[in-house]
């Protein structure tokens, strides 16, 4: 959501979500002023190109050595480093000084913000600011008095919800499909599919007018980001992964199988873009075919169990046929895996996949 800014004493709200974000910024600025005497106010956001990342707000901070302007990304909950890494990339993409605003940033996450150069303020008085003539570092202030209005909904914090959202983002036509079809594609129960869509509507990601063909996903870029952040720790860890190593690092180039499998991560990225030389190999396979696949690999390529091996076999959690003959996983999954590796080599490829294979679907539905 974007706040088309106003002065602090002349608040203007675009809608319910915009009001919540504006109140969050106001509370954080008040806490900052109480701790440091630095005064801040909202200013008008400049227009951005269609399809570009849109900050939530723009603020000026007035301090004894001048005024510093920041583009703001608001988060109602900050609880992991990967989330901070994403915010930093988003703010860097606009080419201006960026600032995270949240209800509370823990001491550990504040240290990570400092390490990656992400400036922030929160409603408890914690802050990391570094600009010409300005340096502030406050951490460890607790959120005992946090306002209930800033509490975030649970969102994508369970594996089943992530499965449903993955299906909707990967197969946009499912948004208007019957609940039973969504459930089958996501591999969840009918009730889970219903609850997941209800949660999306409650959080402003879905319009549902109650008639067939009347649902529509909103804020899909933000939903992609939320899915990408939560997948590695919430769903991927539940996929019964097993690791192996092989004598020949190029074994994957000649591998074929009748088992229901798909390449993920680096091999998928190489097949999709031709841009990456895989160092690791990730395979997603139907649970019923997993043992057959592993036996085939052991026979053909002499793979052996290895906790630190470069080969990982996981259970396939989506239930539709691949869209290409290369047996690659859906682009959203490949994108998320590449970013989770925290490797500049894979992150660059991830951005290519996002541009070519993910964002191109946003204008089709």
Give descriptors for this structure.
about 20% strand, 11 helices, alpha+beta, about 375 residues, 3 domains, five-stranded mixed beta sheet, about 40% helix, seven-stranded mixed beta sheet
Question: Helical region count?
Answer: 11
- Give the terminus-to-terminus CA distance: 20 Å
Biggest β-sheet: strands ordered side by side in the sheet: 1-2-3-4-5-6-7
Number of strands: 14
Kindly state the mean pLDDT as a whole number? 83
State the shape: globular
What is the N-to-C order of secondary-structure elements (H for helix, E for strand)? HEEEHEHEEEHHHEEHEEHEHEEHH
Tell me the strand percentage band: 15-25%
Q: Which residues form runs of ≥5 with pLDDT under 50? A: 1-17, 145-153
Counting helices, strands and paired strands, the structural category is alpha+beta
Q: Please give the radius of gyration in angstroms.
A: 23 Å
Note the main sheet. 7 strands, mixed
Helical content, roughly? 25-40%
Number of domains: 3
Pfam families: AbiEi_2
InterPro entries: AbiEi_2 (IPR019238)
Organism: Pseudoduganella albidiflava
Protein name: Helix-turn-helix domain-containing protein
Question: Can you put this structure into words, describing what you see?
Answer:
With 365 residues, the chain is of the alpha+beta class. The protein folds into 3 domains: 16-150, no CATH class; 159-234, Orthogonal Bundle (Arc Repressor Mutant, subunit A); 239-361, no CATH class. The chain contains 11 helices and 14 strands. The protein has helices spanning 16-36, 81-92, 107-116, 159-170, 179-186, 190-202, 220-235, 265-273, 290-301, 331-340, 344-358; strands at 39-43, 57-63, 66-74, 98-102, 120-122, 127-131, 134-138, 206-208, 215-217, 242-245, 261-264, 281-285, 304-305, 311-315. Strands 1-2-3-4-5-6-7 form a 7-stranded mixed beta sheet, sandwiched between helices. A 5-stranded mixed beta sheet has the order 11-12-14-10-13. Strands 8-9 form a two-stranded antiparallel sheet. Helix 3 (107-116) links the parallel strand 4 (98-102) and strand 5. Helix 4 (159-170) crosses helix 5 (179-186). It starts with 15 loop residues before the first helix and ends in a 7-residue tail after the last helix. This is Helix-turn-helix domain-containing protein. InterPro entries: AbiEi_2. It comes from Pseudoduganella albidiflava. It holds the Pfam family AbiEi_2.
């Amino acid at each position: 959501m974007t706040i088309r800014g106003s002065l602090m004493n002349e608040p203007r709200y675009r809608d319910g979500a915009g009001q919540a974000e504006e109140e969050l910024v106001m509370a954080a600025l008040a806490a900052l002023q109480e701790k440091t005497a630095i005064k801040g106010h909202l200013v008008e956001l400049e227009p951005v190109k269609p399809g570009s990342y849109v900050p939530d707000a723009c603020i000026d901070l007035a301090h004894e050595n001048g005024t510093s302007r920041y583009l703001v990304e608001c988060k109602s909950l900050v609880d992991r480093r990967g989330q901070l890494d994403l915010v930093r990339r988003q703010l860097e993409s606009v080419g201006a000084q960026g600032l995270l605003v949240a209800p509370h940033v823990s001491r550990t996450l504040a240290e990570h913000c400092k390490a990656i150069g992400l400036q922030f303020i929160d409603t408890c008085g914690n802050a990391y600011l570094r600009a010409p003539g300005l340096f502030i570092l406050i951490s460890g202030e607790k959120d005992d008095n946090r306002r209930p209005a800033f509490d975030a909904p649970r969102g994508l914090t369970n594996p089943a919800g992530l499965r449903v959202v993955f299906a909707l983002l990967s197969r946009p036509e499912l948004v208007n499909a019957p609940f039973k079809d969504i459930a089958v594609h996501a591999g969840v129960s009918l009730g889970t599919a219903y609850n997941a869509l209800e949660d999306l509507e409650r959080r402003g990601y879905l319009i549902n007018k109650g008639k067939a063909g009347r649902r529509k996903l909103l804020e899909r870029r933000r939903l992609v980001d939320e899915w990408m952040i939560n997948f590695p720790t919430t769903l991927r860890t539940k996929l019964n992964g097993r690791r192996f190593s092989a004598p020949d690092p190029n074994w994957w180039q000649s591998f074929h199988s009748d088992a229901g499998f798909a390449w993920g991560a680096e091999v998928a990225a190489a097949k999709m873009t031709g841009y990456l030389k895989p160092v690791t190999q990730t395979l997603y396979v139907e649970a019923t075919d997993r043992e057959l696949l592993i036996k085939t690999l052991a026979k053909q390529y002499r793979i052996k169990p290895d906790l630190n091996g470069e080969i990982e076999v996981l259970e396939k959690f989506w239930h539709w046929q691949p869209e290409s003959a290369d047996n690659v996983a859906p682009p959203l999954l490949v994108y998320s895996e590449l970013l989770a590796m925290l490797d500049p080599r894979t992150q660059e490829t991830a951005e290519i996949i996002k541009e070519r294979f993910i964002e191109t679907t946003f204008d089709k539905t």
